[in-house]
Specification:
With about 375 residues, the chain is of the alpha+beta class. Helix content is about 40%, strand content about 20%. It has 8 helices and 12 strands.
Length: about 375
Amino acid sequence: MVGPGNSKLSYDELSELVKKQATVIATYTDRVNKILYGIPLGLLLVNKQQRIEVVNKLIQHLFEYRQEELVGQRLSLLFPELDILDPNVKGQKVLARKKSGEAFPAEIYVNMYDASLDVVHVQDITERHRLEQLRQDFLAMVSHDLRTPLTAIRLFLQMCEQGSYGDMSTVGRRAVARAESSAELLISMVNDLLDAEKIDSGDFQPELQQTSTNTVADRAIFASQGAAKSGDITLEKDVVNDVFNADEDRIVQVLVNLIANAVKYSPPGSAVTVLGGIEGTRVVLRVRDQGPGIPKHMHSAIFERYRQLEQPKATKRRGVGLGLAICKTLIEKHKGTIWVESEEGKGSTFCIAIPLLEIVTPSEL
């Protein structure tokens, strides 16, 4: 018996406490099991010998095994090409194999549960893999089955316009010019799609070389003369010939895109100006137009994919909303920034800034 002042528990009290603790543990275990078996991901507990200790129902469903067939087996039963788990590799893509022998692509995430166990999250990515293959096939079709004939069509139209197939009437030349413009637009859209894919895949890295603000401005203006002429826009330049390191072709691509946008929104008879030079520790290039301006709330949104401003009905050249998004990514690959300075009714200035990795004097160019 427990006497007054004696803090020791009686046998009955101790037994009751043990029962309560057992109930708490059972409740906790049941809750953990519900989470383990209810989560919409395959879960495995694997020991340091790479043997399976616990599986949830989704794993059983994915691999067509019963729980007792998996517990105690080596992990290589499910992932034949996986030698050992590495918690440092996140989102590892592996080949998984079902009991029937059927293989499927899977993605696994490994986290350490305790000193002796790792938790492995398994996701079947068959559908994602299929969609990725469809995307690759579509891009291959766009590249080979669309761009090549479009280029041939544009070349033929240019030859017609130049009189290679005989003289044409004024009406005929105008019709050919409109067809050529349409072909150029389609080629531009195809190139944007392919550039976006290349950037997304992580294959693109800028090839830095020595260039100058004057060189990239001149190349961009030369490439944009046709579009500017058709829109009755004058292209002007106010550039200090400073030298910097960048992927010249990609910077020209960005400027051509910015000039094309400026031309598209500028009123006939106005000018689009390219400005540039070193400012502090970076090279800044600007494309200024006299268009309708951009609402402030759209200054960031226009650099998102597939986002476009409301365009006037008279706008002749339309796109898919990838141009500025690609420009943003290309400049960010140079560790730079891109932004717009604009007010409604006062025109717009698109700006790019690239840090100077190495100061070079013009005499070294």
